[in-house]
Amino acid sequence: MQLEGKVAIVTGASSGIGRAYALALAGEGATVVALARTLGTIGERGPQPDSLAETVEAGRGLPGKILAQACDVAEEDQLVSVIDAAGTNFGRIDLLVNNAAVMRMHETWDVSAEEFDRVMRTNVRAPFVAIRQAAQFMMRQRSGSIVNITARAGNFIERTDGAHPDLLPYGVSKGALNRLSHWFAEELKPHGIAVNALSPGVVATGQNRFVANFPGKEASPEVLGPALVWLAQQGGDGLTGQVLHTDEFGTSWGTM
Asked: pTM here?
């Protein structure tokens, strides 16, 4: 087990990519504090779909453990409280995965200021707040890894017919997240902490169901987990300050 004894925080862990990441980390022995807005319940038919209850149930029997914590990352007081509690209760935070994000399609000229702010609040401000809080524990222990889940939409994509989804706020937010990753990588490297951005690529989840004729890869720990597990083991003297793609893991990076 590569992460035995490690403590990880994963945001947006109730379904899809976040759920796969939580399971992958617990599969390697980590204690995972899984955050999402929907705690969920377990009834006669099993756990509520797309909830933390379902993630916890799926993780039973793994070497590590998954602990559910309801939290709206867009609410600063909730996010600060949860991260501080995790660091205090376990005495450490080894990995922070900023996965929670809002992705909505809009015609460019139809995006309201309120919607733009909502996306930025969840996709950029929340990762900043989470890094600010988790880094306090990581700096004290002189080690840690922060992984911000980004997307190709954060890069410049030339507009071609049928290949330019209306994702202005989302794309801008992911570009900002990449810059945030570079900034904190330089800030935290002297403290032994790695900061990277990881793009999982197109994954078959509810958020990207609009991608026509491109179902994407499976949102499973087997498919998405290895790249994240490798990054979880990095520190300030390892790979840091990079924007990476899961599909290139084991070829252009992760081969050391």
From this structure: 0.92
